[in-house]
Amino acid sequence: MPNDAVIDYWADIYRTCGLQTEMTFEVFLSDPWRYLRQFGQESAPALIEQGWRPLLPAQARIARELAIAEHRAKRGSASSPVLLLIPRNRKGAPAMSESCPPTAAKDRNYAGAAD
């Protein structure tokens, strides 16, 4: 059984990461690093020690998905899916880059050679 200082250390991380909604503290304490990795919070202890807050649950989920995709890419598995992040506008369509020039059909001020 861990001593009180160890229990307090992990309890602070458990609460700060918001893992109460995912599991009991007793389950977490049985293998804290496993559960931190499972929820994308393996950087939480270092961040907390430096005075920072750990990732929010949504950020941790994305971090975990990116880590899995990176691991699969390093293995060179052709069958692994690729995570592609495309910015979207408010209506859900892919956002146009500011650096992309408008096409002639879309630009009403365009004067073509035939005009």
Write the layout of secondary structure elements.
Blueprint: H1 4-16, H2 25-30, H3 32-38, H4 44-49, H5 57-75
Q: Oligomeric form of this entry?
A: single chain
Secondary structure class reads: mainly alpha
Strand content: under 5%
Distance between the termini: 84 Å
Tally of strands: 0
Largest sheet properties: none
Q: Roughly what is the average pLDDT, rounded to an integer?
A: 78
Low-confidence stretches: 95-107
Order of helices and strands: HHHHH
Share in helix: 40-55%
Total of helices: 5
Shape, per Cα inertia axes: globular
As a whole number of angstroms, the C-alpha radius of gyration is 23 Å
In short:
The protein is mainly alpha-helical.
